[in-house]
Amino acid sequence: MRSLALSLTAVLFLVAPAFGADVKYNNQITIGQKAPGFSGIPATTPTGEDTSISLDECKEDVVVLVFLANHCPVVVAYEDRIIELADSFKGKSVKFVGVCCTTAPGQVEQDNLAAIKERVKEKGYNFVYGYDETQAIGKAYGARVTPEFFVLDKNRNVVYAGALDDSPQNPANAKKFYLKDAINAALNGETVATPTTRAVGCGIRYQN
Fold first, then answer.
1. 3-state class (DSSP) for residue 21
2. Which of the four pLDDT bands, split at 50, 70 and 90, describes residue 24?
3. Most exposed among 2, 22, 103, 194, judged by the fewest C-beta atoms under 10 Å?
4. CA-to-CA distance for 165 and 77, rounded, in angstroms?
């Protein structure tokens, strides 16, 4: 556990420049705008079946889009919390969608669809998880790091962008549950109290 904490500390230090100084931490997405569409992203289901991810095929009232990467220790630290949060909304009109768009040399083998299938099985992911080697979805949403979350309401407007909570290293220290609160607000047709936060994690390297 100590080694993971040290790794997280190192990662958070190394990726600090990825956060930038853009207004509301994102230079691509504006809260309230129509969510960029995406389709045909190769993916796997929790039961290991091949599928694809398309926004138009999501029929739930709320879609939670999360950018992930198997190689990222911050994602590893958050995995249990993400899975537990998705499970807490079981039976409600909420769909979690995970996507990785890592294409950096030395990381692809850990993050491609074959590796994702293994991770889903090993960890017990309870939502669809795909791989976009074109990186188009990451660019469209202005995703900077992994994990990074976007909440889309029933009108498919972006109502939240940022972190899951305020404690990347230790879930016991979390006091603000940004993502959970945003999902509940979207379900109830309410305005999200904190619509943007700074996502903390491993920087996504875009090829172009």
1. coil
2. low
3. 2
4. 12
> What is the residue-averaged pLDDT of the chain?
89
Task: Encode pLDDT of 172-207 as tens digits.
Answer: 899 999 999 999 999 999 999 999 999 999 999 998
CA 205/CA 185 separation, integer angstroms: 32
Residues 6+ apart with CB under 8 A from 174: 165, 166, 167
pLDDT, tens only, 110-119: 999 999 999 9
Measured CA to CA, the distance from residue 169 to residue 86 in angstroms comes to 19
CA 176 to chain centre: 17
Under 8 Å between Cβ of 36 and 67:
no
CATH fold of the domain at 2-203:
Glutaredoxin (3.40.30)
Position 186: which residue type?
A: A
Measured between alpha carbons, how far is 130 from 154 in angstroms, rounded to an integer? 22
